[in-house]
């Protein structure tokens, strides 16, 4: 019996060795010291995890995912924290920038910190660029924008296939399994996750697949697995709240007593007489004239109206358009013109792979038909979904995550991309959660509020109660004067 046990144990050790060796072969690590602005030295590691581009495709190419692990400054650190950035952006650069690394010192006083770049975020091959003529109606109507983007997606899919890129390998389940693969390779059994925006989407997939390994979860600007597509009513309600704020502002109310009414007037005006703005083509830098109709205005508002930096200019923007002064509009459209030329394949696929249930999509279409913004809330995914191939996920993203893991949710009260009511819906399924709402904060500002980033999150990761913390991102929104010379936003300077 003892002999059998010894043989069995030897067999287990052999198998374990093979697994460990496979993990080592897939992992490249080198030591590196990092420095903050005050020359504090942070010991760390830089590495790459090699994974399959598509785990369901045996012939898929291998790709490398960069990560950086920073050693905690604490004598007895808590479980390592894995930071999951928002969609389309790498995050390891933050460790290599002394200024940005300094911002993370409060976290390093608690735990080791691991930055992991999402698969695809640094691969230029995954972005297809439209080389044809600028589609004249793109910023005029939703119908024209949808048609162009579907053509763009079809061209992109042909490009990916020709270059042996398996674009279907980029989705929330793949990201979650990459996190698990990295922690296993590093020998980390218990860890905390800290997600921002799309990073919360990944974090919730990690919870659903590997909850037993998660110590704590922090989600800022939360997107549930079943919330990849947003309700247009969120944008409608957010604009009404901005209109209410504008009505209380003396620099606005005399010329714009009703911001909602002004929006309707401007939309009607642009329907009959689209604005014409002079922009630089992002590909050849040549000047081109671009027509902007109601959809174009809806799109730039949807993209920028939950940013505290841009909200103050909204009344002046609409008033100037009504006066047929398109200078501010020109600045905003120039900022977003790349939408007409680029198809970020990994980003499009990850949104469509999560998708929306039939019930949710029916409600979205109903609200879009009634909204002054149409379905700008979900563009370009609402266009791409009609031509993009179907993903096969083992994870059912239409089912909300239910978890008992200790979780901190953070929302900005000016965020319409991941609004407070959406986070409340998610949090109702979390038995052990705290929800902090940051006043005067948009989508991005909610994370970087000092009371949140330097105080609440580190304390939460140490196991402390943070429900009493009141957070406010500076003063209330102060709108720009409607007319006259003014500073305070790059569109008017």
Key descriptive features of the protein:
alpha/beta; Rossmann fold; 9-stranded mixed beta sheet; two-stranded antiparallel ribbon; 18% strand; globular
Please characterize this protein's 3D structure.
The chain is α/β, with parallel strands linked by helices and 493 residues long. It folds into two domains: 10-123 and 169-227 and 398-461, Alpha/Beta hydrolase fold, catalytic domain (Rossmann fold), CATH 3.40.50.1820; 126-164 and 229-391, no CATH class. The protein is 40% helix and 18% strand. It has 18 helices and 13 strands. It has helices at 2-25, 93-96, 98-103, 105-108, 142-162, 172-186, 198-210, 232-247, 259-272, 294-304, 314-322, 327-336, 345-354, 358-370, 381-384, 420-427, 445-448, 450-461; strands at residues 27-35, 41-52, 62-70, 78-84, 111-116, 127-129, 191-196, 214-220, 275-280, 287-292, 342-344, 406-412, 433-438. The strands form three sheets. It has a nine-stranded mixed sheet, with helices on both faces. Helix 16 (420-427) links the parallel strand 12 (406-412) and strand 13 (433-438). Helix 9 (259-272) crosses helix 11. It is globular. Mean pLDDT is 93; it is low at 1-23.
